[in-house]
Amino acid sequence: MRRIHWCVLSLLLLIAAPVLALQPEEGEPPQEAETVENETEETEELTDRERAIRILESVPLIDGHNDVPWQYRQRVDNRLAEIDLAEDTTELDPPMHTDLNRLREGRVGGQFWSVYVSPSLEGAEATKAQLEQIDIARRLIASHADLSYVTTADELEEAFEEGHIASLLGMEGGHVLDNSLATLRTFYALGARYMTLTHWQNTDWADAATDDPEHGGLTGFGQAVIEEMNRIGMLVDLSHVAPSTMHDVLDVTETPVIFSHSSAMGVTPHPRNVPDDVLDRLPENGGIVMVTFVPSFVSEAVRQHGANRAAEQARLESLHIGDPEAVEAGMEAWDEDNPTPGATLSDVADHIDYIRDRIGVEYIGIGGDYDGITTVPEGLEDVSTYPDLFAELIRRGYEREELEKIAGQNLLRVFRANEAYKESEQGTTRPLDVRIDDFE
Ligand SMILES: [Zn+2]
């Protein structure tokens, strides 16, 4: 009796199983449709660029650094109406790297607009300029429906899903704080989501990569700045700072850091790049290097040429004191004999390869520095060219998942880790009430 029962049951199961397997689970697309889509992808014979575009349409490409707000300040004294990003800005003199059509073409899904302030401004002047930079960036974002002002990782993803370019603010140059944690907190409240600790020059509390060592890294007040940035959820940006500062920050930060626009010193030994011993600490910290396109940072030939040109200029100036025409003529002759070697898209991909091989694909992002540079690599001429870089990575064997991480998922991970830390601190810690003088 029992045996017969089992036989019937098994028979029933045999009949039912294939039928059940064909039923899609709730929320899952029917299997048939999926097969059709896969077939299309295979039979269509997509180019690498088209493949790259498909990836960038599914995951936001988040660029770490674009200097358009500085262009408004430099070119038109922040008169918003005088440059229309909806127009073709290649028509301007000099042409810009960024406008809305080209951002679309480049499949940019998220942009940290740099609200840079020159270190030639000091004290209250720098703080005022910071307010003006935040103001022009926010007015610019508000004036275009394509751009969507966001301040959290969730908002960033939502804006991308709605087809907008998520727009965030990143501050560049810690001198704008005028040594006050109150200004830091207020800039955060106004929307700034990262701060590059220094620009080209040291601040009173951190050494820059391109200035004489002064503090040996971070001072005690500098540590307080990091503690407060962690607490309020402001990403710490280590582009521009000295290796000593990078190490000091990695010793004290509770959250993953970013390099918003830096490349690898192991490929091009420019002081603005990230040295190997700092790269090696990133997996433990969880932070990312947003690889930049600045020609002299990504090509050693360009860097050497720049140094030689500066040396020739200095030599001619000391030979022809008080005779600028002779200097000019000499430089013209030198330029003719020494054409500028160009950096290329391939050079940039080499930096990405290098960081991946050394520490892994989880620690890479993209930070073009468009409109903050005057020359660009061949193949990466403006913001429309990001898909070409991803196409090159596809040719170099990168998997889709790796490219999704480089495009934006790594940045989102870092952003969320900072947000989570901020949340964990809320209610348990108070705003730091220290002054720079307390540390002397
Ligand atoms: Zn910069």
Automatic annotation (TrEMBL):
InterPro entries: Metal_Hydrolase, Pept_M19. The keyword Protease applies. One of its GO terms (molecular function) is dipeptidase activity. Coiled coil: none annotated. Residues 25-45 have a biased composition (Acidic residues). Keywords: Dipeptidase, Hydrolase, Protease, Signal. Its EC number is 3.4.13.19. Pfam families: Peptidase_M19. Residues 1-21 form the signal peptide. SUPFAM superfamilies: Metallo-dependent hydrolases (SSF51556). It is an enzyme of class 3 (hydrolase). This is Membrane dipeptidase. It comes from Natronospira proteinivora.
